[in-house]
Structure formats: C-alpha cells, structure tokens
Amino acid sequence: MDFPLVRMRRLRRTEALRRMVRENALSPNDLIQPLFVVPGKGVKNPVKSMPGVAQLSVDLAVAEAEAAWEAGVPAVILFGIPDKKDDEGSSSWNHHGIVQEATRAIKKARPELCVIADVCFCEYTDHGHCGVIVDGDVDNDSTLENLGKQVVSLADAGADIMAPSGMMDGMVAAIREALDENDHDHIPILSYAVKFASAYYGPFRDAAESAPAFGDRRTYQMDPANAREAIREAQLDVSEGADMLMVKPALAYLDLVRDLKEEFELPVAAYNVSGEMAMVEAAAANGWVDRQRIIMETLLCMKRAGADLILTYWATEVARWLTK
Ligand code: PBG
Ligand code: ZN
Questions:
Q1: Which structural domain, as residue segments, surrounds residue 253?
Q2: Tally of structural domains, the chain
Q3: Mean pLDDT of 138-157
Q4: Tens of pLDDT along 34-46?
Q5: Beta bridge partners of 190
Q6: Alpha carbon separation from 51 to 33, 48, 78, 80, 281 (Å, rounded)
Q7: In this predicted model, what pLDDT tens digit does every residue of 69-95 receive, in sequence order?
Q8: Residue 324 in this model has a pLDDT that exceeds 90
Q9: Taking Cα atoms as reference points, which of 60, 78, 62, 227 lies closest to residue 150?
Q10: Which of 64, 102, 158, 226 could form an SS bridge with 37, CB 3.0 to 4.6 Å?
Q11: CB count in 10 Å sphere of residue 107
Q12: How far is the CA of 236 from the centre of ligand 2 (A)?
C-alpha cells in the first residue's frame, strides 16, 4: 500500500488521535534529581552556569529532596563538596563525610525516597582526578581499594543505590565484593558503564569543584568516537554484577542508549548532563527557544531512544509539569 491509499496525516489530525497513537511518555517515575551538598547550615550557592541549581548545605538539601519526592520523583543522586581535600580523597569514606551526613539526614526526613550515591573521588581529591595518582596518572587497582571503603561507608549511612562514575576497570566487581562482605548485599549498583571524556561536563565541574588540576580524564573516560567499545564496557560491568547501566552524556550519545537497551536486559539510565542543560538554559534566556517545550522534547526523546531512567537537573520541575 502506498499514497494516496496511505495517508500518514490521518492519525495526526486531532489531539485525541495523537494521544491514542503516542508510543512513548515521560513519567515522574523515570526521573532522578541530582543535588550538590556542601558543609554548613543555610548555605545556598547558586551555580552560575546551571540556572536553578545551587550547592546546598545538608538542611537545604533535605528540603530539596523532600520537594522532589512531593513532586513524584522517586530518587535523588548526591554529589558532595567536602571542606577538606587530600591526594586520595579520604573524606569520601569518612563516617562524617558530607554525602554520608546528607544521606542520613535525607533518609531520616523521607525514608521512602531512594538516595543514590555518586561513587567517585574527583570531588574529594586535591588534584581533582577520579582516583589515586601514581606516576602522573590514576592508578586503577589502588583506586579500587578505596572504592570499597567509600561504598561501605555510604551504605552504612543509608544510601540505597551505589553509582560508580570513575570508569576504573573492575570497579563494579570491587564494589559488589565490598558491599557483600559488609552486610550490604541488598544494595544495587547503577554503573556509569559508558561514560565519555566530554566537554559537556564543564558546568558540573564548577558546581562540584572537581575540575582536574592537571591533564584530563582521557586515560579513564571513553573516547567520544567509540561505540563498539561501549558495548564491551557494558558487558564487563554486567558480568561484574551491575544491576543497571548508565550512558553519559545523553543527548549526543542516544545511539548508545539504544544499543545498550537492545543488547542487555538491564534497566538503562541516561544522564542529561550539565552542558546539555546549560545550552538549553542559555538559549531560553535569550528567547531563542521555548524553554518548557524544549526540555520536555529532550527528555521524551531520551525515553524514545530507550532510557528507562533519566538523571536531570530539571527532574523536580518536570515532574510538576507532568502532574499538574
Ligand atoms: C565525576 C562526574 C562527572 C559528572 C558526574 N560525575 C563529570 C566528570 O567526569 O568530571 C558530570 C555530570 C554533569 O556534567 O552533569 N565522576
Ligand atoms: Zn570522578
């Protein structure tokens, strides 16, 4: 069958028809709200390159987490900015570390809310790299030992999901083993399995104060040119025990969201990163795009590509749009 028998516009004629044949929809259940936590009380430091986002002290982060939950968002992911950094990032496994404190406070206020801990060292090291430096580069295996300490400390504080983002080889296995040996075998791992060395992280590094002091992350994060390698990365993480897989950034990498969705039976998350947000906000502030429409389109298309979950700085706001 062909035109003129076939007319695709028949099913687009009214809003009711369009609703009936719509293949994908965004739900608050799909969304994860990132929060940046700093020491202090009543502290709110807006991040210039991320309009609407601020570094928050624990008390205000609890309020934001509660607002996310009230809006229908099931989870937050926490990034910590500690008051002291050292060469190993040891405050990341301190019982009184910033994310540990924030986790305990949020879980106390809203036990039902899922708290995801970003598991990495770049916010905690004085050099800003995602692990221990040996001979000018991140040393993989000593970083794995520290990852074990970090996840046990975070799980002890009540975190519900571990999300390792450092792209170390063997990180998922090391974390699984550390959790299982310490009575945390019920804690799932959301692996940043496919994470690229991307210019889209610029604003985040202001927010998290985690820009590397020398060099870049290209010896551990992936080359944006590679797609087949992404499958290998994901395969390894699955075999090491990952419960969910993440692709990051999202927008320029939606082909990989689709690849992972087709290749594996695990839930797939996409990280709508800071640079993707900043581009939209800047254009919207200039009146060049319709802010709400472009945000909804962007996130919906991540779902269409295969994302089951979306980490986005707009999560709470979007959840309100979806339910109003
Ligand atoms: C670091 C980390 C990064 C992001 C989340 N965790 C960036 C980096 O590699 O510097 C980026 C998030 C964003 O840009 O929104 N482990
Ligand atoms: Zn890192």
A1: 24-323
A2: 1
A3: 98
A4: 999 999 999 999 9
A5: 244
A6: 15, 6, 18, 19, 7
A7: 999 999 999 999 999 999 999 999 999
A8: no
A9: 78
A10: 102
A11: 19
A12: 19
